[in-house]
Specification:
- By secondary structure, the chain is an alpha/beta fold.
- It has three domains: 2-60; 67-314, Endonuclease Chain A (Endonuclease, Chain A, 2-Layer Sandwich), CATH 3.30.870.10; 322-484, Endonuclease Chain A (Endonuclease, Chain A, 2-Layer Sandwich), CATH 3.30.870.
- The chain has 19 helices and 20 strands.
- It has helices at residues 2-29, 36-48, 50-60, 67-84, 100-111, 127-139, 159-170, 181-185, 190-200, 251-256, 271-287, 322-333, 349-360, 376-383, 386-392, 426-430, 442-457, 464-467, 472-484; strands at residues 116-124, 144-149, 174-180, 203-207, 223-224, 227-231, 235-239, 259-261, 264-268, 307-314, 337-341, 345-346, 364-370, 395-399, 403-405, 409-412, 416-420, 424-425, 432-440, 459-462.
- It has a 16-stranded mixed β-sheet that branches. The protein has a two-stranded parallel ribbon with strand order 8-15. A two-stranded parallel sheet has the order 12-18.
- Strand 16 (409-412) and strand 17 (416-420) form a beta hairpin.
- Helix 2 (36-48) crosses helix 3.
- The radius of gyration is 24 Å and the shape is globular.
């Protein structure tokens, strides 16, 4: 009996010491270079449920890409700055808002891309119309086609696009394709898509592959979420739409009758080369191949329009959250109204404060989100902010189910807009590689207003009185999801 008690005391003391070492180490390691909310969430997980929190932190606790990948991005940024130094990419519009120049400089400092003038842009709010427009652009290709989509599926809806790629290769056009590994490998048509690309002779590569046995490993939920198409350096597309059917061909979506609503933009002018530079940097990061020769890098080719455009790449390969800083800067710069469309809206403190402060400054602030969610955790985390937004004066529009409003855009007053792949949530700010395009020009904002009017007509306004009637179990789910959303 004394021996048993001695052993029990020894093991208890040893476990206590190990537990204290883990907790002290966690306090030192976890908050370092991490947002306070994320640091606190991780500490709570490790302290209160260590058997789950600690393994989870070891698996997904690093929100950055590898040091080698970040150094590669820094080198690419340096090359872009060097190539664009002192070069005029079109003629910028006259009489910009007083704050516009500082926002452009912010984007230039963080993402390296220059402001370009003399651009034209056309919006495609219809899902099939955008695929048809991209297909036609590929049919017109003479030199190269660069395809980069988070989700890429060779299905019945995208069949004309894949046929256009095949025809382009047959006439000697170089076709290069990038698609995210994690987002595609478990989706329908992944095997068929790969086989189709191989059969046509396209050069293709998965992005951010999670293949630890092959030496490819990083935090598995770091994703390349960009959507873009570049043809001959003359025309480009970007926006929110993946290259797949508007149901994503998923049984759960088909069973619920869900369909995605997206917005793509077709651009011509010097900004095309900036979008192409994003593709080239991603291609180099995944393949170590430096593309040159027939490919224009930061071309000064004048476009048929008068829009000022600047591309803002962001993601865990950068040291800063480029998209978040742009969004917050625009919210504080606005003088009249702010309209935001974001399918996954989980703001941090800075973004939430900027939105409610805009209301207090007398601005009209509108937020479009979906009435129904396709991702339960994000949907509930998003809902946890509705009361604060409504009390702060934000008008919330719920796009009616069974449609998922997947568009990602923002308009500021009547002259400036942002469109791209970036949601307004912590994942898009810190974990996803995204592409955003800042646009200045009242003619473009007029196009955006027409799309916003379509969304408003298909939505219903959420009132504070209605929201306060939410059942208790729903509020509990929302708050729990809010806590887990900070685990970055």
């Amino acid at each position: 009996m004394p021996g048993f008690m001695l052993n029990w005391t020894w093991w208890t003391s040893a476990l206590f010491i190990v537990d204290m070492i883990v907790r002290i180490a966690a306090v030192i390691v976890i908050p370092r270079n991490r947002l306070p909310t994320a640091g606190m969430a991780w500490l709570l997980a490790v302290f209160f449920v260590p058997e789950i929190g600690l393994p989870l932190f070891l698996l997904i606790g690093n929100p950055k890409l590898s040091r080698q990948r970040r150094l590669k991005q820094q080198a690419i940024n340096g090359q872009i700055r060097e190539l664009s130094q002192g070069v005029e990419f079109g003629t910028p519009r006259a009489d910009p808002p007083p704050w516009f120049g500082s926002l452009v400089e912010l984007n230039r400092t963080l993402g390296a891309m220059p402001l370009t003038g003399d651009n034209a842009a056309k919006l495609y709010p219809d899902y099939l119309d955008s695929i048809a427009a991209m297909t036609q652009a590929v049919r017109d290709a003479q030199r190269y086609v660069h395809v980069e989509f988070y989700i890429l599926q060779a299905d019945a809806t995208t069949e004309p696009f894949f046929e256009a790629l095949e025809a382009a290769i047959a006439r000697g056009v170089a076709v290069r394709v990038l698609m995210d590994h994690w987002a595609n490998h478990s989706k329908p048509f992944y095997r068929q898509t790969r086989e189709r690309l191989d059969a046509m002779g396209a050069s293709w590569q998965v992005m951010l592959p999670v293949k630890p046995l092959s030496g490819h490993y990083q935090r598995p939920d770091l994703r390349n979420h960009r959507k873009l198409l570049v043809v001959d350096g003359v025309v480009a597309f970007t926006g929110s739409q993946n290259l797949t059917d508007d149901t994503y061909n998923l049984p759960a979506n088909l069973r619920r009758g869900l369909h995605w609503i997206d917005l793509m933009v077709r651009v011509e002018g010097p900004v095309v080369s900036s979008i192409n530079a994003v593709f080239l940097s991603d291609w180099n990061s995944e393949t170590d191949e430096v593309l040159s020769g027939e490919i224009d890098v930061l071309s000064t080719r004048t476009g048929p329009g008068d829009l000022d455009c600047q591309i803002v790449p962001s993601g865990p390969g950068f040291e800063s959250q480029n998209n978040l800083r742009l969004f917050v800067g625009l919210l504080y710069a606005a003088q009249e109204q702010i309209i935001i469309v974001s399918p996954y809206f989980v703001p941090n403190e800075a973004l939430l404060l900027a939105m409610t402060t805009a209301c207090q400054r007398g601005l009209r602030v509108e937020l479009f989100v979906s009435e129904e969610g396709d991702q339960a955790m994000v949907f509930h985390a998003q809902r946890s902010y509705y009361e604060a937004l409504l009390r702060g004066g934000v008008t919330i529009w719920l796009y009616r189910k069974p449609f998922i409003l997947h568009t990602k855009c923002m308009t500021i007053d009547d002259e400036v807009a942002v469109i791209g792949s970036s949601n307004m949530d912590m994942r898009s700010f810190g974990l996803n590689l995204e592409i955003s395009m800042l646009v200045r020009g009242d003619e473009f904002v007029t196009q955006m207003r027409e799309v916003e009017a379509q969304y408003r007509a298909a939505s219903r306004e959420l009132t504070l009185d209605e929201w306060l009637q939410q059942p208790l179990h729903s509020t509990v789910l929302d708050n729990l999801a809010r806590l887990t959303s900070a685990l970055q």
